[in-house]
Amino acid sequence: MSPKVTRRSFLRTSAAVAGGGLLVPVLAACGQAPTPTPVPPPKPAAPAPTAAPAKPAAPAPTAAPPKPTVAPTPTTAPTAVPKPTVAVKPTAPPAKAQITIWHPWRAAIGGPQIEKFINDFNKKSTTTEVINEYQADLGKKIMAAAAGNTLSGILWGGDMFRLALGGQVRELGDYAKSSKLIDLSQFNAGLVDLYTIKGKLYGLPIEMSNRAMWIREDLMKAAGLTTPKEDWTWDGFVEFAGKMTKSEGGKVVQWGTDGVFFGGAMMTINWLWSNGADFFNQDETKVVVNSPEAVETLQFLVDLGQKHKVAPPGSQFLYQDGFESKRLAITYAGPWMWGRWIGELKIPIVAQQYPRKKKPASAIGGAPLYVAKAGKAKEDASWEFLEAFLSTDANAEWAATTGYLPVRKDSGATPRYLNYVKEQAPQMAPHYAALAYGRPSPGQRLLEFGKIAAIYQAEYEAMLNLKKPVKQALDEVAKQANANAALFKKLDD
User: Fold this and answer.
1) pLDDT in the model for residue 79
2) Cβ–Cβ under 8 Å, residues 406 and 421
3) What 3-state class would DSSP assign to 457?
4) 98 vs 65, higher pLDDT
5) I want to staple 367 with a disulfide (CB 3.0 to 4.6 A). Which of 87, 188, 207, 208 is the partner?
6) Which residue in 379, 369, 372, 445 sits closest to 407, CA to CA?
7) Rounded to an integer, what distance in angstroms lies between the CA atom of residue 279 and that of residue 269?
């Protein structure tokens, strides 16, 4: 509200009155006739009548008193009488910039949390209002809007890379440099690098996750086992899974671990890295999955079902249905299942990092948050929300209420997150510890990675079902992929 204007007082002018008028008296002259010269006395004459005395002269009228002294003219104009102050109506605040956020969260885990954060943000922000929009088919929605050139606001996941190359994503580097809330050194360096294209940062990670071994604690205890140590080996894993495999009448009714076909061929990456193997060479210009270490790794995975018989053989797997029905003791899962299995179904679960051959390994995945190009006002408003949502405490709260891993190191060190892991979700401890050596899954910067993965998938299924020897199948993957240089074209090329 504008301050009131004080009424100014009049300038009072005093004038001294000058002295009174001057009276001048008029004197009247008064005299007798002269005595006559003597002569012989005549006959006495009758005396002349005495002249009537002269009327005294009327005094001159007193002069009119002087006119009252006129107040002197002031040298400056007198102050004008101010008009009464009119109350000034408060200026209405400027309208907030409205932006949308498209996300895939609707379930009990994730949906309420993001809705609460958006509502709290809208109450605090004086410049931005975020509209919460859940999208059932987020990827298609984003690409349809991109085709119609109507992208706007904050986008969660989808094909950020192609959109950025098409000029529809706002570069975030300048925002991050001037931000008091975003410190890029706190984020996983591999993911920051992944979301940087041709030297420009386009996205920041959210929903970060990795895989670990999730073990049904009730089945583990029934087998007389305890949680394995984090440095357990491949051989120790086979022994552990074997003790949790049960048969009745010659038929397996409870598998120790899941079929390795679950998730597809690229699910083998943790096993490959642990044995010192890899799928690509360092600069991802060639497939090297037929190395001796890779052949040894894939043979071990085939043997889990075909030789050791602790997992469904071939391309079979049970995953969610088997785990929930107690037909499966161990599966490869991650934070995305915390909401259902622990939050809703209350399944007793312990978790541990992947078994190791030569070293620990963990592939990191997730989704980026990014800003659509839609004019400076909307872009600035989108960044205001994004940096608030990815601030230290906000990200710790998101991780502690959804089960996803904090994307910031300092978020993982907050009392909120540490207490959450200790009291509510000890299953997240091995996942979080694995971030220390985790790195993004391979191939994500290759424009035609899907085609390479399809070649690997076909040969992987053949080896699991004993249709091809492991070495022959992996040689075929390398041969087909490396024969086509176009498959290795990168986002930065």
Assistant:
1) 54
2) no
3) helix
4) 98
5) 207
6) 369
7) 7
pLDDT grade, residue 36 (50/70/90)?
Answer: very low
> Please, are residues 263 and 442 in contact by the beta-carbon 8 Å criterion?
no
Determine how β-strand 363-371 pairs with β-strand 439-440.
parallel
Inside any domain, residue 493: no
Single-letter residue type at 435:
L
Is the pTM of the predicted complex or chain greater than 0.85? no
- Give the integer Cα–Cα distance in Å for 39 and 116: 150
How many domains does the chain contain in total? 2
Residue 79, token pair as written in the block: 């102050």
Q: What is the bridge-based pairing of β-strands 204-209 and 363-371?
A: antiparallel
**How many of the other CB atoms lie within 10 Å of CB of 170?**
19
Q: CB count, 10 Å around CB of 201?
A: 20
Please report, for the domain that includes residue 332, its CATH number. 3.40.190.10
Q: For residues 116 and 132, is the Cβ–Cβ distance under 8 A?
A: no
Structure tokens at 110: 């994730």
Cα 287 to Cα 477: distance, rounded to the nearest angstrom? 8
User: In terms of residue numbers, what domain contains 408?
Assistant: 97-209+365-440
Assess whether 305 and 194 both reside in one domain.
no
Alpha helix stretches (DSSP H) within 80-200: 111-124, 138-147, 160-165, 173-178, 189-194
What token pair was written down for 441? 């899954």
